[in-house]
Amino acid sequence: MPRSKEQFEEMRKATREKIHSAAMQLFVHQGFGSTNVQDIADKAGISIGLLYRHYKTKDQLFQELVAYAVEGLKRNIAFFESGQSPKTLLTQFVDEVYSDMIHGEELAHLLILIHQSLLAGAATASESYEEILRVNARLLDTTAQLIRQGQQLGEICSGDAQEMAVFLYASIQGLAEMKVLLKCNFTMPSPSVLTAFLFNGRE
């Protein structure tokens, strides 16, 4: 019986998800330069011809993964600008980071991919490189503003809000890299540890 258009679309989506997962793992663990399209096809369990039907080049695949990660950063910005209590927003954000880090590898891989893209793009000043810089700067500023609001409300400890925002993201980035390096020996700090410098045990 011929497959329907919907079935073909589901198959296409499933194949792209396999490719994304395989590519992320290889780019993170082997590096972009040391990964070739055959490696990705083998890891995804598909033929190289099928991979090429979805992506013409390895660079196109890498850029799509980076764009996906950047969209996640943009969603965080929108979340922080939603007008809820700063402490509520930051607590929920850290809880989600904690959950993502202990239940899978995608968040860690996406953060490392963004880092790799920045290092590679620094030499070329590509359009995607400039966008990542803009989005990262906006996320940092939005988070610092949220911290200031929380300080004014008495929800967040005193201190330089920009420095506190930098420390938060540096901690998450470092944990992502440690998760990849340490594998099964990695222990994710609890949300209360991650937010100790923000809330300091306050109710």
From TrEMBL:
Annotated organism of origin: Paenibacillus oceani
Residue span, HTH tetR-type domain: 13-73
Annotated region of DNA binding: 36-55
Gene3D superfamilies, alphabetized: Tetracycline Repressor, domain 2 (1.10.357.10)
PROSITE patterns reported for this sequence: HTH_TETR_2
UniProt-recorded Gene Ontology molecular function terms: DNA-binding transcription factor activity; transcription cis-regulatory region binding
Entry-linked PANTHER family: HTH-TYPE TRANSCRIPTIONAL REGULATOR BETI, HTH-TYPE TRANSCRIPTIONAL REGULATOR RUTR
Alphabetical keyword list: DNA-binding, Transcription, Transcription regulation
InterPro entries: Homeodomain-like_sf, HTH-type_TetR-like_transc_reg, HTH_TetR, Tet_transcr_reg_TetR-rel_C_sf
Chain coiled-coil ranges: none
Name this polypeptide is given: TetR/AcrR family transcriptional regulator
